[in-house]
Design goal:
The structure holds two protein chains of two kinds.
Chain A: H1 9-13, H2 42-60, H3 64-70, H4 89-100, E1 116-127, E2 136-141, E3 147-150, H5 160-172, E4 179-182, H6 199-226, E5 233-236, E6 239-242, E7 245-251, H7 252-257, E8 263-268, E9 280-291, E10 297-307, H8 314-333, E11 364-369, H9 393-405, H10 416-429
Helix pairs in contact in A: 2-9, 5-6, 8-9
Chain B: E1 5-7, H1 12-21, E2 26-29, H2 35-41, E3 48-51, E4 61-63, E5 68-71, H3 76-81, H4 83-88, H5 90-97, H6 102-107, H7 110-115, H8 121-124, H9 164-170, E6 174-179, E7 182-187, H10 188-191, E8 210-216, E9 223-230, E10 241-250, E11 253-262, E12 269-270, H11 272-278, H12 285-295, H13 307-321
Parallel strand pairs in B: 1-3, 2-3
Antiparallel strand pairs in B: 4-5, 5-8, 6-7, 6-8, 9-10, 10-11, 11-12
Helix pairs in contact in B: 5-9, 11-12, 12-13
The chains are: A alpha+beta, B alpha+beta.
């Protein structure tokens, strides 16, 4: 059993269109168990919508990017109709088009010549990722100057440990390696499950809240020692010092010693400001080369631009994007469940027959962030990034293939047999 | 997984003597890259696994006057790195370089590659009792068959997955076989047999016979050869279609040519009709494509694998034209 999981959501939300009607239904089949993965529903819905727009643009003789810009909206077009608090999608379009050199695309799909043809394509992404208010984190400041952050979240490989250390360290003027992070235990303060791109915008602000409280407390202690007002204390570079006289300083360690015992600060992720919609946005731009005789597609480059509010850690954020694009590419070109219809069994249930991308299939991937800040959302102004990079990659690659060969394959994975079939369809039509 | 005994003969004579008397189900293991997967999944259930690696002197590459002799236990990686192979047999060098992955090439052997079992997903599924495993039908025939045979099927639509076999057959390679009845040498082309001969196996080896050595005839200076393997992704895959071509060329014309295809039939598939059409003629890509098309006129693709016919044309045309 598997469910579509709101595959129509992007169709309702992304573009300004007064008359949208979607119907969604699940088909229950007597086959192997299945569940959607990373951005359930949106990957599929985006593939359909963005492919449709690409074909529409060609019919209209329009630049597909211009078509999207023409239908740009700054408010949620779905149920709420309220404005987005921040929407950096226009900036994503601009940076992505520059990154892939968009004007190189075939003005008419399939206009190139020769055995191997290049094409450019793009696709838009919308997703949630505002995080969960009520998330808790504790910060423990010990008299030896060591700092522990404790939170009932988990790191599923997405860099939660890093982001917690980075947020606490930056708030307290320390280095990330000075912070001991304790997670992965349900006895710890409550955090939501690791899904829905919600960990960073839930846990990050809770940690920030706890760390701000700790900073305030240790500033007060230092102020007394330095004989100045707490408001005049700067906390940075593992020191606390007088903003008017920086040499009047106390090390973080010595200040912590003054506390004489461990102190625990409770942090909480607060509610965002009402009346606004909080979403993440992105746009992927892909370049492909298609062998017209074998139907084999090679992805040459993907420029992946995302607006997720403030980026907490560049390394892990870029890593998320590279992973998402890799998954999207793998789905676009290789991955499929092949079911024998007479027995209902999956015939390719191993990693030899269920093909995933190999290192040799991965092109240059350029992650770019519209590094903005959404103060209405939370105290860090950050949104989630777990799922967004997975959403538009397959669609952008499929649209690039369309731009290269002049016919949309309309189905993933775009294996050579399907590409050859699509080319034959095109030949028969003309 | 069923338990098995492990036998470790120390000499080839010991092995042959053992095979003469052992009546239980025996699997010979060289690199184990294929066999161990089969045992773990339960596709085969041997009573005894004979580890051939305990026999010394079965891994070698020797250039002699009448042939280059390659021991069955030579690893694919050693073959890939051998200067004689690179110099004399480009088709072989190109074939070994695209086998599996570096890890598989390090473990896999020449003999093992030539004796590997088919990758058909129905054959490999322990819950499916297909004709090859003693059942009464080929599940691929009306099932999911995009990777299956377009020619030579009938009883069973597996494709033979080896990259080495088409390359070596194109080079007119002989194989030496040892058994309690002595030694014999046969062309590798005759080593493989269609399902109509015996649906349960892919070659003519009897249970007490061992493939010991391959012998490639010496290269001549007019020889040209190439291997071209089409796979769906960048690496680590079996051929959807592959073409091994070897011939002698003079002035852009093939004086003689051998074409062997992989990935399309239950055995490496010699395309003699196309050879005849190409030999002695001035060539163009289109002419080779037509030759391939006509040579495959008897092909009977199944519902999902008709695209392989198109791929044969392209892959063969590119391979042949790269040599003139």
């Amino acid at each position: 059993m598997g469910r579509g999981d709101e595959a129509s959501e992007p169709l309702i939300d992304i573009y300004k269109c007064p008359n949208v009607k979607v119907e969604e239904f699940s088909v229950f089949a007597n086959t192997c168990a299945s569940r959607p993965t990373r951005a359930p529903g949106h990957v599929q819905g985006t593939f359909a919508l963005e492919g449709l727009l690409e074909e529409l643009a060609a019919e209209l003789g329009m630049d597909p990017l211009e078509l999207r810009k023409k239908n740009y909206t700054t408010r949620n077009e779905g149920d709420s109709k309220i404005p987005y608090s921040t929407k950096g999608l226009d900036k994503c379009y601009e940076l992505g088009a520059a990154g892939i050199d968009w004007q190189r695309r075939n003005k008419k799909p399939g206009a190139g010549a020769g055995r191997k043809r290049r094409g450019l394509g793009m696709a838009t992404q919308i997703w949630w990722g505002a995080g969960v208010p009520g998330t808790l984190a504790d910060l423990k400041l010990n008299p030896d100057g060591s700092v522990e952050v404790i939170c009932g979240t988990q790191d599923i490989g997405t860099g939660t440990l890093t982001l917690i250390a980075v947020v606490a360290a930056e708030t307290l003027g320390l280095d990330p390696q000075d912070i001991t992070v304790k997670i992965g235990n349900s006895d710890y303060p409550w955090a939501p499950s690791s899904g829905g791109s919600q960990t960073a915008p839930s846990v990050g602000p809770a940690v920030r809240d706890a760390a701000l409280k700790a900073a305030q407390r240790i500033k007060e202690v230092a102020a007394k020692k330095l004989n100045i007002a707490a408001a005049d204390v700067i906390i940075a570079d593992k020191k606390l010092y007088d903003k008017n006289k920086p040499e009047n300083a106390l090390s973080f360690k010595d200040a912590a010693k003054e506390l004489r015992r461990e102190s625990v600060f409770h942090g909480e992720r607060k509610e965002p400001q009402e009346g606004f919609a909080y979403n993440t946005f992105g746009a992927h731009f892909a370049e492909v080369e298609v062998d017209m005789e074998t139907g084999r597609i090679e992805v040459k480059k993907v420029v992946a631009v995302h607006e997720i509010g403030r980026v907490l850690n560049k390394l892990t954020a870029e890593s998320q994007v590279i992973g998402g694009v890799t998954q999207g590419l793998s789905a676009a070109l290789f991955e499929q469940r092949i079911t024998d219809e007479s027995t209902g069994t999956l015939v390719n249930h191993n990693l030899h027959d269920y093909k995933i991308a190999t290192a040799k299939d991965i092109p240059e991937i350029v992650p770019i962030f519209v590094d903005s800040f959404d103060p209405r959302l939370n105290n860090l102004g950050n949104k989630g990034l777990g799922e967004p990079p997975r959403i538009p990659a397959s669609a952008a690659i499929a649209n690039a293939v369309y731009n290269a060969i002049g016919v949309h394959v309309r189905e993933i994975p775009m294996t050579p047999d399907k590409v050859l079939r699509a080319l034959k369809r095109k030949e028969e039509r003309s | 997984m069923k338990n098995f005994e492990l036998a470790e003969p120390r000499t080839l004579d010991q092995l042959i003597a053992y095979l003469a008397k052992e009546k239980r189900r025996v699997s010979l293991m060289a690199g184990g890259t294929d066999l161990l997967g089969e045992i773990k999944e339960g596709t085969v259930e041997p009573d005894v696994v004979v580890d051939l690696r305990t026999i010394p002197d079965l891994a070698y590459i020797k250039k002699e006057k009448d042939a280059v002799r390659i021991g069955a236990l030579t690893t694919v990686a050693d073959l890939a790195e051998n200067p004689v192979i690179a110099q004399d047999y480009p088709v072989l060098k190109q074939a070994v370089e695209v086998i599996g992955s570096p890890q598989l090439r390090n473990m896999g052997t020449v003999g093992g590659n030539l004796c590997q079992r088919p990758r058909c997903w129905y054959y490999r599924d322990v819950d499916v009792v297909c004709r090859k495993k003693g059942g009464s039908k080929c599940f691929a025939y009306k099932g999911r068959n995009k990777y299956h045979a377009i020619i030579g099927g009938g009883m069973c639509y597996i494709v033979y997955p080896s990259d080495l076999a088409p390359a070596l057959i194109a080079l007119d390679t002989m194989v030496a076989i040892s058994s309690p009845r002595g030694q014999k040498t046969i062309p590798l082309a005759d080593f493989y047999a269609l399902p109509s001969v015996n649906v349960h196996k892919e070659n003519v080896l009897e249970p007490d016979e061992v493939l010991r050595e391959v012998r490639i005839p010496p290269a001549t200076k007019d020889d040209r050869s190439a291997y071209n393997k089409f796979i769906e992704r960048g690496s680590w895959d079996f051929a959807v279609v592959s073409a091994a071509v070897k011939g002698t060329v003079s002035g852009k014309i093939f004086k003689d040519i051998r074409i062997v295809l992989g990935g399309i039939a239950p055995v490496p598939w010699r395309l003699q009709k196309a050879e005849e059409a190409i030999k002695g003629k001035k060539l163009s890509e289109e002419a080779v494509r037509v030759a391939a098309r006509e040579a495959l006129q008897d092909a009977k693709p199944l519902e999902e694998n008709g695209y392989k016919k198109d791929l044969v044309e392209v892959v063969l045309a590119r391979t042949v034209m790269s040599l003139v």
